[in-house]
Structures are given as structure tokens and as C-alpha cells.
Amino acid sequence: MKKLLFLAWVIPVMAHAQFVSEVWSPDNGDGTYTNPVINADYSDPDVCVGASGEDYYLTASSFQCVPGLPILHSKDLVNWEIVNYAIGNLYEGDEELLRHFSKPQHGAGVWAPSIRYHDGWYYIYWGDPDYGVYMVKTQDPAGKWEKPVCVIKGQGYIDTTPLWDDDGRCYLVNGWANSRAKFASVLMVRELSADGERAIGQPVIVFDGNGTENRTCEGPKFYKRDGWYWIMCPAGGVPTGFQLAMRAKSPYGPYEHRIVLAQGKTDINGPHQGGWVHTKYGEDWFVHFQDKEAYGRVVHLNPVDWSSGWPIMGKNGEPVKTYRKPKCSSGPIVNPVESDEFDKPVLGKQWQWHANYDEKFGVPTAFGTFRIYTYKLSNGWKNFWEVPNLLLQKTPAEQFTVTTKLRMTSKAEGQFGGLIMMGLNYSALVVRRVGQAFELVQMTCEGADKGNPQRETVIARLKPTAEDQTDYKPGIHEDIYLRLTVKDSKVRFKWSQDGKKFSDCGETFQMKEGKWIGAKFGFIAAEGDPKCDRGWVDADWIRISEK
Known about the structure:
Blueprint: E1 32-34, E2 46-49, E3 56-59, E4 68-74, E5 80-87, H1 95-100, E6 111-118, E7 121-128, E8 132-138, E9 149-153, E10 157-164, E11 170-176, H2 178-181, E12 186-192, E13 204-208, E14 221-225, E15 228-235, E16 242-248, E17 256-261, E18 272-278, E19 284-291, E20 297-305, E21 312-313, E22 322-324, E23 352-353, E24 362-364, E25 370-373, E26 375-376, E27 391-394, E28 400-410, E29 416-422, E30 426-434, E31 437-445, E32 455-462, E33 466-467, E34 476-487, E35 490-496, E36 503-510, E37 520-527, E38 536-545
Parallel strand pairs: 26-37
Antiparallel strand pairs: 1-22, 2-3, 3-4, 4-5, 6-7, 7-8, 8-9, 10-11, 11-12, 12-13, 14-15, 15-16, 16-17, 18-19, 19-20, 20-21, 23-27, 24-25, 25-38, 27-37, 28-34, 28-38, 29-30, 29-37, 30-31, 31-32, 33-34, 34-35, 35-36
């Protein structure tokens, strides 16, 4: 194992080197870019211009995954890096909700946030469909965010965006989740207090898409331009819909509307929810997502033309694949981080847990590794759908290879750990203790969300590579390299004992998205014995490459 060079256990805002992906970078290096600008699952993205006018900040849905509300930064709307998260566990300060989200609540939590800069503060609003409208704020997006404030308590509220008007009054637009409210496809506007922390006005329905092509209108974003109030939202369904723009002379309407972006003759389906940006250079751009099934909802950038009085997006209302980059003063080629050497005393920003974090899930070590402890599975468990200590990150491209070096340490029979591709279906390659040895096992489940049991295939019998020299609760250890390759949403596993010669193993696995999120890969460690001491996986490094 490599050694970690640091002297004190501190957790400051860590300086970090800019990362350039080996598998997807949208910047072509010639003044143009190729969509998607983020080839990863940043569902329901929204973006704002920072205080300097030279910085852009993006956030996206994080649902039950923590930390939540990722904060990405860019200088040119093309090159993005992860710089922070706005919230940790859901929801700090509320013991009941903290316990509720201590187990995976798939598809719940943080839905469709909006990010805004107003009067020296950055605000993020989101709807939690089970608990209400929440807001967090900060004066530094890369720094500490204040604790969430519940602006409106209740069920069904989603897709919330504030608008501070010229006179300082604040308005909020929202959509509705049919799964909770039992109605949808309507947008409402109400007034908030000037500080944006509570509702002071009654809601008004300003748009109704029921019974029309504009069904499933959702994800509204609220703006004001040249005396007009604008709401931009998708309609027609996630994989098949289009973008609407609506305008009115009052925040409460009535609004006239037009389709301003649709798939047309392109292969970019959707195109779905996003945010409009007006830059200091006088340009207009629209950031939105495209649903790519198992890969999740990836982020596209399209130009916006206002010459007709309406925001016609892309090229004549159809998404662009390759286009000139936005004007900017400077900006390096940089991408959201993927690989991790685990050589810092904090977890890399690409990682999220599948439920509220507990220190017994795992922690960094002083030895250049990240330790994931075995989770105690409940009696009668069937699959990993309810395991909270899955340490996962988003897929970064349609084709890539993941290789990790790890050590499995076992204190008791049946403890296991390894590499997993997780979604509604999943497959994992793990090392499991059997007696005084280990076996390499592929664990696969189809319909994990439905409680279906997993199937297992034993691939190899492995002798321990090390044993504790003690008579008090000795452990045995297995050092191993695991690899998964992804192509055309199919996964193949490989393994090696020396990191040089890899052997194919197991069956090909068809990736499947999770609940409102793309498939994610990373680490699992678990066991079925509730009484024994935990085992653990020490991940030395994980590297994402083209091949």
C-alpha cells in the first residue's frame, strides 16, 4: 500500500488539481465543443452566473444520495469541475428525517433544484416531494452552506425556482409530483417573503398542460427579461418531450407559450429540463439534460437566439451536437473528477453514499487508502437495494474501464467486499471469506427494487495473501485487483492478483438505471452475521481509463 504524506488530521477545503478525463472531455481544443458537456448523470441541472460575471455554478438533483446538491464550477459553460456539495446528510437538525434517510429512500429526497445569485448570496431551492420546499444559501459556493430552511411544508411540491423582482419582491414557481399529490402538469406561482424564507401569498395556477401535448409540464425556471416574466419548462415527457417558453406581463400570468427546443431530426431525445444563462459578453445559452437510460441524464449546452422576441434554442430550435464555445476571458480544460488515489484525508468529491452517512460506513486512513466497513445485512435479506454504505460515483462516458486495487480483510465467515455496478439491476465482483480462505464471486440481481433475490457464481478459490499473527480475533486478508469494462451499457468483469495479467470472469451484465438516477459504480462491503466484528475493504486506488 502506498503511504499518505500528511502530518495532521484536518478537514479544510482541500486544494485540488484540475482533472482531465481520459474517457470524455467536451472541449475540442479548437474553439468548439461537443455535447454532452458533462457526460454523467447530473439530472435536472440548473446554472447561474456568479458575482464576478466570469464564473458559472451548476447544481442538480441528488435524490437520496449524500452528500447532496453537487456544486460544479465552470469558466466557459463547457469545462466543469465538482467543487462542493451544498448539503450533507438529509436533513441535519431534524432527528426524525435523519433516521428516515439513514436507509436508502430510492427516488426520494432532493428533486430538481434551482440555483440563483441575489444581493450577494447564492441560493438553492428544491422540492422534496414528501416534506416540502427547502432552501440553502451561502456567500461562497465552494465554501460552507447554511443549514436548510423549510420554506413550505407539505407533500407533492417539486421543481421550485425563485425570482427576485426589480422591486425586491420574491416569487416562487413550482410543479407537482403526481405520485404524492395525485395531480400534475400544472405550474403554480406564489409570493415569498423578501428574504425567500417563507410563503406570504396564495398560490395561483399559471399553466395547465393537462389534456394537451404539454402534458407532464414540470421543472419550471423563472426569469425576468425586458419587462417580461418568463417561465421555461419541459413538457411532453422525459425521453420524448421538448422545451417550452412562456411569457407574461405579470408573474401571475396569463402566459402565452411556444415550443423553443425539440429533438427534431437529431438523435438528442428529450431535450429536457435545464436553465438559461445570459453572460457578461452578451450571449445567451441553455443548459439541459438528455435521458440516456442506464447512463442517466447527461448535460448539454445549446445557444439561445432572442432576435424574434422568444428564446429559440440550439440551431433553429433543434439541439446542436458540436458548436463554438461561449465567449470567455479564460478557462482551462477540466472535467468532473473520476479516478481516486485515496491519498487525502477527505473523500473525493465524485463519491456519494446511498443513504445518510454513518462513520461506520467507512473513513479515509492515514495509509493512502479508503476503508469501507462491512455493513450488517438484516435477517432474510435478498439483495443490495437496501444497503446504505454503497460508495458510488456516476458513469463518466458510454465506454470506459474501471480498475481498482483493494485489500479485503475478514474477521469472520461470509464477510465480503468488492466492486459493483448498481441500479434497478446490479452486478458485483466480490471477495468472500469461506473458512480460512476466500472465493471470488459474481453477485447479480435483476429487479432489485422489487425484492428479487440475487444469484451467485463462484469464479475462483483464493488463498489469503496475508494472515494476522495474533491469537486474538485474527483476520485474514486478500490483496486483489478488480476491473469492470463498460461498452454499449454492458459490463464485463476481470480480476488479477498481480495487476498485470487480468482474467475475464463471470457473465456479461446489462446495466440498468436506478430510481430517477443512472447506474453508478463503486464499492460494496457487507456480511450477514449481526454479532461478529466487522471486516473491511481498504481501497488503495481506483482508476478510470479508456481501455
